[in-house]
Amino acid sequence: MITQFISEKVLSAAMSTGADFAEIYAEKTRNNSVLFLDGKIDSVTDNVLSGVGIRAFLGTRTVYATTTDFSEDGLIKCALSVAQAIGEHRAERKIHLTERIFPNIHPVKILPGSALMKTRTDLLKEACFAAKEFDEKIRQVTGRLMSVDHTILLANTEGLYTTDRHVRTRMAVSAVASDGGENQSGFEGPGRGMGLEMFDEIKPADIGRRAASEAMVNLRAEYCPAGQMTVAIENGFGGVIFHEACGHSLEATAVGTGTSQMAGKLGQRIANEKVTAVDDGTVPGAWGSVNIDDEGNPTQKNILIENGILKNYMIDRLGSRRMNMPVTGNSRRESYLYEPTSRMTNTYIANGPDKNEDIISSIEYGLYARKMGGGSVNPLTGAFNFAVSEGYIVRNGKICEPVRGASLIGTGSQILMDIDMVGQNMATGQGMCGSSSGSVPTDVGQPLIRVSKITVGGR
Amino acid sequence: MDYKRIKEIMSAAAKDAGIDEYEIYCSQNENMSAETLKRELSGFSSGMSGGVSFRCIVNGHMGYASGSLIEESELCALVRRAAENAAAIENDDEVFIFKGSESYSESFPSLGDTGVDPAKIKACALDLQNRVYETDPSVTEGTQSAAVYITSEVYLYNSYGLELSNRVGMTGCYTYPVVNKNGEAQSHFEFALGLEGKEVEELPALAVKRTMEKLGAVEIESGKYNVIIDGRQMSSILSAFSPVFSAKQALLGLSLLADKEGEIVAAPCVTVTDDPMREEAPLKAPFDGEGVATYKKTVIENGVLKTLLYDLTNAKKAGKTTTGNGQRSGYAGQVTISPYNFSICAGDNSTEDLFAMAKDGIYVTEVKGLHAGADPVTGDFSIESAGFRIRDGKRCEAVKSFTIAGNFYDLLKNIDSLSDTVKWQIPDDFCVFGSPDVFLRDISVAGK
Q1: HSE-up of residue B248 (Cα within 13 Å, Cβ side)
Q2: Which of A45, A374, A378 has its CB closest to that of B334?
Q3: What are residue B274's DSSP bridge partners?
Q4: CA distances from B226 to A16, B230, B404 (A)
Q5: Which of B45, B186, B403 sits opposite A409 (nearest CB)?
Q6: Hey, CA dihedral for A170, B375, A185, B317, is it positive or negative?
Q7: B281 with B341: CB under 8 angstroms?
Q8: Cα separation of B427 and B110, whole Å?
Q9: Residues of chain A neighbouring B222 (CB-CB closer than 8 A)
């Protein structure tokens, strides 16, 4: 995209007024998606996003500028605008870049761009028709097969010059069941950091059936009662609880600016001793994995909490400067239009000591949250919320009738202590996480867990 | 962007490919922002973004392709890809390239044409931050303020010779004070339009006051309460449920407002309008993403659903006329039905009147997690909230994290009264929501 020689000139220009670090991030990303709606292929989205972001640092002050002009003149102009905004003194800095090749730990077998359109529409139809045929009350099925082929180039004044290519694929099906005047919905949306070979592992028809099944359960569900209860949260996307309740508060974006309830707590007990939590961007082919982060650092496996003790944060370059701690390979952004910041990759609570059947049988009266929706958090106060998309009342240790329309709220510091049982069936679920550097793919995960007490928002 | 050049290259490529009906849609945005932390400027960013989309009708199907590079080879590739993509589509709804409306509202060039000096943006952010710190000694680290400038330009040209453009822009600033008192930290987000003026002048004091008010919040017992939802929070709820007003969603059976035009869907005090050229809105849209002239319309009048929102395809399908709501979000977005300046109209009570009517209840001043806690297909919501207790018709102590739960369709019917001022969300694109404070009886609240 940009040669080594031009990158050196552009970085020199960015440093020409006294910045102490500068970086070029360039990308070419092809987004393709096929939408199934009302029994037919409805539309095709096909976009190529290309652009460059140039960033300079002076201490903990940053300046960022973007352009879509890849010409040498266009890039130098952009770099000079960064230089003009960051410093006032004339400085000369000769840049010498060395090309680095990072190992590709997420090889792709079937590039989505190389597959025939019919291959893609057939996969999508298999999922959507399976949902439609699940029950005659399934009234509407919407399905989307999305693929992203993302090539980036990074060059910085520490001498780094490298490129990386990352492919991801996701199929999302939502089903609506209708019974007279009432609609209920179900959703299933697995994704992988792979090409179309993800469907060797996950059968499209299963995706459709799971979405339909959830909609049907909700159609016969009564409204969830309100109040504080003991709650068992199932594996997979249930891990959104850790993502919201704690994960965001461990990002340098919050910790380094003094807006996290977890700041200054390294080495302290912040969770029940059964809780060990990990962020791992290296899981092969996972939805939140990348070879290198958006500052060119290899991703790594970070133990965040070990047996209840806070061990580490997730740190990008700016956070590293603010916190005086090393980077952790967590710098991410949606695209060149965003300045990168510390973000989660694949974040999960590890398997614990409790048997799953013991968790359910321990609950006299409470809620079993089989599937979760999304949520949000204020990292400063730790106040979080997330939605229960498929839930059941637990009575005398048995899973009973389904309930709908529930959400769970609480504060991160409290719920981490209240996770008093951790099961052994760790699995992950896929989501898009939104924050100041845009929307990025993240995996959440956990085994079945029990929270001794949490507020259930119902009626 | 050189629109003339893009038009010439793509029109020629379309002609070569034998494509008769097509449309070129370009959008270009410019942005600048300055951020502060502690009492210093912590970041400054600027840039241009945008791109070109080509869509065309091939065998009755509409294919799209878009990209951000405007070299000749890239533009020609878009024409080819759009035609290929059309071949995959099975939906037989009639699709249109629009011949043009009789007339269009005049698009006034706003401040986008002259641009804004970066120094002014930086000065505004820094001044705001300093004034926030000076408002109260408990304002502490983590406090952030920023000033922003954005412009948005769209250009549309189609095979019927319709050629339209619109350029709008705005400036604004926001602050996020963090206060720490007796070991308790709280924060609050507040914004103002413009870089100067009364609203900006008053922003620090208002933001700090609202943050301080949250300190010492208590938990609330679960139960049914009279609830007053602050207008800005109600705007967010309206935004989360806005797909229910889309004719496409209705025709697909995904909105319970299907077949309800002409029927009562809300309380008699509820009137809802959509006004693309709203006087005070900084981002006005004289035409939609299909080139149709926009206009102000009443969607609900005194509780009766007057119209859903339509684009050309769904209007044809339903035997109606488009309402000019076929929007495109950026150059890469396909035509999607959505509102412009969409609001519940003001009532005639002051907020204090509503407190007096509620006597005993809760004033909701914060709602969060609507992307998860609100389902437009079912209408159900269960939303994390915070606010204040109302006792004896007066606003009292702050209450923390509770949920309000219900169903949007029921909520519309159960609105008891409205305040006399519409509060609008931050206008970060053409689609913005507004509402007065809303008084509802017997809402389910989950607390302790």
Answers
A1: 21
A2: A45
A3: B297, B342
A4: 62, 13, 11
A5: B403
A6: negative
A7: yes
A8: 14
A9: 226-228
Residue that the structure tokens 């005993």 belong to: B360
What 8-state DSSP symbol labels residue B442? Answer: E
> Would you kindly state where each structural domain of chain B is located, as residue ranges?
3-213, 223-446
Q: Is A51 on the interface with B (CB under 8 A)?
A: yes
Give the chain B residue whose CA is nearest to the CA of A43. B89
Quick check: A439 contacting B, CB < 8 Å? no
The mean of the pLDDT values for chain A is 95
CB contacts, 8 Å: A459 with chain B = 405-406, 444
SS3 B414: helix
CA distance B197 to chain A (A): 26
Please check whether residue B320 is in contact with residue B337, taking contact to mean a CB–CB distance below 8 angstroms: no
Element spanning A178, H or E: strand A160-179
Identify all chain B residues contacting A387, using CB atoms and an 8 Å cutoff. 369, 372-373, 382
Q: Which amino acid is at A82?
A: V
**In terms of Cα–Cα distance, which of A56, A20, A60, A57 is closest to A322?**
A60
pLDDT confidence tier of residue A381, bands split at 50, 70 and 90: confident
In this prediction, residue B100 has a pLDDT band, given cuts at 50, 70 and 90, of: very high
Report the residue of A30, A41, A47 to disrupt the B interface, i.e. the one with the largest count of B CBs within 10 Å.
A47
Q: What is the DSSP letter of B187?
A: E
Amino acid, single-letter form, for residue A32: N
Q: Which residues of A touch B377 (CB under 8 A)?
A: 176, 183-185
Residue B194 backbone zone (phi > 0: left; psi -120 to 50: alpha; other: beta): left
CA dihedral B36→B41→B45→B46, nearest 10 degrees, is 110
Q: Please tell me the distance from the alpha carbon of residue B440 to that of residue B420, in angstroms, as a whole number.
A: 16
Contact criterion met (CB < 8 Å) for A409 and B254: no
Tally of residues, chain A: 459
Residue of A252, A338, A260, A352 lying closest to A302 (CA atoms): A252
Give the gap in angstroms from C-alpha A306 to the nearest C-alpha of chain B.
27
pLDDT at A186 exceeding the cut of 80: yes
Tokens of A151: 């090539």
pLDDT at A89 over 90: no
| Joined tokens for residue B321 | 């006329």
Q: A261 touching B, CB under 8 A? A: yes
List CB contacts (< 8 A) between B88 and chain A.
34, 41, 44, 117-118, 121
Q: Distance (Å) from the C-alpha of residue B99 to the closest C-alpha of chain A? A: 23
Superfamily of domain B3-213: PmbA/TldD superfamily (3.30.2290.10)
E-strand ranges in A189-238 read: 191-192, 222-223, 227-233
Rounded to 10 degrees, what is the CA torsion of B204, B206, B211, B215?
A: 130
Domain positions in chain A: 227-457
Q: What is the interface pTM, i.e. ipTM, of the complex?
A: 0.92
